[in-house]
Amino acid sequence: MNPNLRKRLLGLFFAFFFCFLCTSAAEDRLPQLPDELRLFQGQGRQIHLALPVQASISVDRPDVVMLNGQAVPSMTVSLENPVNLSPVHSGEAKLRMKLFGQIPLKTVKLNVIPDLKVIPGGQTIGVKVKSAGILVVGHHQVSDNNRKLSPGEAAGLKVGDLITHIDGVRLKDVKDVAEMAGKAGKTNKPLQLTYTRGGKSFNTSLSPAFDDQDRAWRLGLYIRDSAAGVGTLTFYAPDQGVYGALGHVITDMNTQTPIVVGSGEILQSSVTSISKSESGEPGEKRAHFIKEGKTLGNIERNTHFGIFGKMKQNPDHSVYQTSIPVAFSEEVKEGQAEILTVVEGQKVERYRIEIVHVSKQSAPETKGIVLRITDPRLIEKTGGIVQGMSGSPIIQNGKLIGAVTHVFVNDPRSGYGCFIEWMLQDAGILQGNSSSQNLKAG
Predict the structure, then answer these.
(1) 381 and 253: one domain?
(2) Catalytic residue among 60, 115, 375, 411
(3) Are 418 and 424 in contact (CB under 8 A)?
(4) Is-contact 317 123, C-beta < 8 A?
(5) Considering only CA atoms, which of 12, 124, 51 is closest in space to residue 389?
(6) pTM score, two decimals?
(7) What is the pLDDT of residues 196-228, one digit of tens each?
(8) Residues 6+ apart with CB under 8 A from 120
(9) Considering only 221-230, 251-260, 305-314, 420-429, which range has the smallest mean pLDDT?
(10) Is the per-residue pLDDT at 101 higher than 80?
């Protein structure tokens, strides 16, 4: 064989082999690069494949996203170095990557969202919520002419049902029910009740019974219309005038039924003591509403990701006085982070944690983050995560990424957190297809 031809063939073989190796290595790295990237306007992002090859990268909308700080449609780069994406305007663009300018490698959809920043909370808050009706929490046996009966149970009402109307009148206070029952009993006219169960509305007829023991007309139901407790403020969004707190839904303590909000408010609160968490025994913050303390905001919604409403100004005792960026769920990484919370009085402090697991979630789900308390100061004071700490904001790399939600009963130093983007969706300040139930007055 001609020596020159042999050299050319060997050169072609090695070139082909090199391209094959580079392409295979690139394909192995591609799972790290999703088909779609969400970016906030004005917040840069990096793509780092760490491959020692040249590639051509292009973007069809350089007015939406700049490459390595340049508003150009394409450029040649070394994939050994990070590629910087700089979102300029909200909108969509497509990023294409080709090896050696010829071999298609990856196309990524870039979705640029208007910039969003909020002020992390951490303050302990008092929560007072009134339901959008009267919640049935139990059945009561009425003594009527030597017989025991529950008119409410006979009418088909179950624990967890929400009575919204009696005789066409919307119920606003549990105290009104006794007067209505008395009037109906004396006139021997059944009450017409409207109630909700499982998100559906039903009607029933209920005839009150006269209780021989307390000499009054009764429905044979234990009922409640309000709840109160303490939790932690997660964020305040000054541009929108809204807040988010708790990170999980408020439920009735007896029925575990989510409370449908009629009205409510959050108040200044001060931690008086801590019952430390131990294995098998979750602790709690003990706090009281500050006498003559101002109302911080109202409660408009109670969802699987917390409570939300209006707030006029950033509350006192904030660690952050100005807004910081928020992170999408795909930006959250395993490793070091911190939470903001109160363990004494009203002072918000930073405490170190480690994020030990991050779930991949493309739709709203709870328990997206598994975290562990590592700060010896917090462990000494609380034993780990305690009740009342729910909603404590989680900060990583200068961004608000989520909120503490639950403690592991058998390992109180560990617990769950939810991603902040789901809370921002339920607050109404970040667009998305939220699947969390919105528990609000109709």
Answers:
(1) yes
(2) 375
(3) no
(4) yes
(5) 124
(6) 0.84
(7) 998 899 999 999 999 888 889 999 999 999 888
(8) 234, 235, 318, 319, 320, 324, 340, 393, 395, 400
(9) 251-260
(10) no
Last residue of a domain, one of 191, 219, 247: 219
**Amino acid found at 168:** G
Integer Cα distance of 372 and 74 in angstroms: 44
Q: What is the full DSSP assignment across 278-289? A: BTTB--EEEEEE
Based on the fold, state whether residues 382 and 241 are members of the same structural domain: yes
C-alpha distance from residue 315 to each of 170, 268, 296, 297, 319 (Å): 34, 9, 7, 10, 10
Give 300-365 as a DSSP string.
-EEETTEEEEEBSSPPTT-S-SS-EEB--GGG--SEEEEEEEESSBT-EEEEEEEEEEE---SS--
Tell me the pLDDT of the chain averaged across its residues: 88
- pLDDT grade, residue 1 (50/70/90)? low
Among 425, 421, 413, smallest CA distance to 368 is for 421
Do 295 and 150 share a structural domain?
no
**Which one of the listed residues 150, 323, 390, 436 is annotated catalytic?**
390
Catalytic residue among 131, 161, 248, 414: 248
Of 167, 165, 164, 157, whose CA–CA distance to 136 is shortest? Answer: 157
CB 77 within 8 A of CB 47: no
140 is annotated as an active-site residue: no
Assess whether 317 carries a catalytic annotation. no
Number of domains in the chain: 3
The answer on pLDDT for 254 being more than 80 is yes
Nearest one of 331, 377, 330 to 353, comparing CA atoms: 377
Of 219, 243, 259, the residue at which a domain comes to its end is 219
| Residue 248 annotated as catalytic | yes
How high is the pLDDT of residue 292?
A: 67
